[in-house]
Design goal:
about 290 residues; alpha/beta; Ubiquitin-like (UB roll); 3 domains; 8-stranded mixed sheet; 8 helices; 11 strands; about 35% helix; about 25% strand
Amino acid sequence: MPAVMRGGAGPKKGARGKRGPATYAPAKLGSAGASGLKPTGAAISAIAVLVLGVGLLLGTGDRGHQLAEATGKAVYGRFAAAGFKIAHVRLNGASAYAQPDILRAAGVNPGDPIFGLDLKSMRERVEQVGWVKSAEIARLLPDTLAITVVERPRLAVWQYQGHTELIDAAGQVIPEADPGRFADLPLVVGEGANEAAAAILPLVQSRPRLMGRMEALVRVDARRWDLRLKDGAIIQLPESHEDSALIQLDQLDQRARLLELGFERIDLRDPDTVAVRPRQNGEAAGA
């Protein structure tokens, strides 16, 4: 049986702990931008630059891409001078654990022209963050960027080959997470335990007396589970119909308070026979 320990890999590089919401909030611009133009005048000027750029694009053939890029920067700069630049980032739906990684992936800075942002590319970068299931990004004119995410639900800590990872409900690893910060989550151990955990955990979590005594769920030969308790006892579950086996355990516990008496091993793999091995010192001989 693999050794069971938490935090085997230690904190991950780039992992982050809890932090408060990260929000950019530099001082707002006044009615006139850095260029001294009022917003209306700056907008008209930006449109004029854009029209000029389109004319040049149509008349320059292969040089069109370079001119279009330069024209776009000029237009964005004019709008930024009128106050249309990033002053605030609103991050919705993200936990304190995930906020730093999401903001880093978004890659926006105070003062960036709000019309110069490629929102599609930004959304794709944010959705590459392991915490994030989906994301939506929108401009809130004149100066706010809104990032709304749906996080992947955290399911358990997975230990395998000496490493520990935080996994979501689909068994996918959240690489940015430090698993040592999630001691409140169940521990699953072994090859394939990450993918099979979502099916077994609800069965165990619905039994508070058992869940309170469990140290880890250990995947055996990638086909069945052992429940390892905090006192070292082992409960062997069958390859299928785990719920029926746990009902048998419930009945034994109700009759004899088995979980309190202590034992070395309970074998529930055979649906017709329950084998209880007492501890060597005889503590559970009566069971």
